Amino acid sequence: MKQAEQTGDFLISGTAADGCLRIIGAETTAAVNHAQSIHHAAPTAAAALGRVLTGAILMAKELKNDADRLTLQVKGRGPIGGITAVSRIFTRNGAAGNLDGIFVKGYAENPYADLPLRASDGKLDVGGLVGKGFLSVILDLGLKEPYTGSVPLQSGEIAEDLSYYYAVSKQVPAAVSLGVLIDRDLSIRKAGGFLLQLLPGAPDKLITELEARISNMPSVTTLLNAGASMENILEDIAAGYAPELSSKIPCAYSCDCSRTRMEQALCSIGKEELRTILEEDHGAEICCHFCGMKYEFSEKELESLL
């Protein structure tokens, strides 16, 4: 397990329009910065990974208990390959209703992938880096089988793809905004996003007005960089619909890997493959994709797993 001291990141949520609109926002600058430093990600790859991490944090509101997990996967055919983020929650007593924190971890198959800025607008070409493919969500709530939903990528820019996932797979109209602003020194200057979900009974006027407001507003990271708080952003979007926001919930990048989990991974490859490793390498080293922690297993330890 490997993590760093991170401060400032948080999630805030609430409702508006007499409960017909769910609003969730998160500032994720420290978590995305930490992910970039772990994976040594190139600017465009860092933006892509940061958007997926932020999306997984926003979606963590669907989790109820400490053992629950939400996995957000983007599998495109572009240079970055697949991107995976996993979010989990920390509660005061392991039960719903006492959410104290949200943790996220993630990785990209090729974090060194990069592309020139888009000629059309001078922005990072996340869609080009991701390419065509699929977005999948795996929600493990401790039931017999986890819920899995998958949709074709619409743009590879992540936010639009998540909105499409909610509309098609969850049949919930939603608007998603995700952003990562890269500084001149290639560090993460700002990262964050918001998720709006229209619940049953939402009037058509609300849908039309929200679409217009969001399409005319600057990007979420532009607003954050200009000094706006996430509360300001959410209140402005839902202005006129009596938004009610909860208290802030801290968020952080944190990997929960362990030696026991790595042993389970070794066992999962099968005894024949394990014997081959034992005979040829006389030991094994496993590196965690999420945090880079290395676990070494001696010849005797491998023998004990057979």
TrEMBL record:
Q: Name one GO biological process term.
A: protein refolding
Q: Which Gene3D superfamilies does the protein's record reference? A: Hsp33 domain, HSP33 redox switch-like
Any one GO CC term of this protein is:
cytoplasm
Posttranslational modification, per the record? Under oxidizing conditions two disulfide bonds are formed involving the reactive cysteines. Under reducing conditions zinc is bound to the reactive cysteines and the protein is inactive.
| GO MF, any single term | unfolded protein binding
Read off the Pfam families from this record: HSP33
Its recorded name reads 33 kDa chaperonin
Q: Which organism is it from?
A: Candidatus Egerieisoma faecipullorum
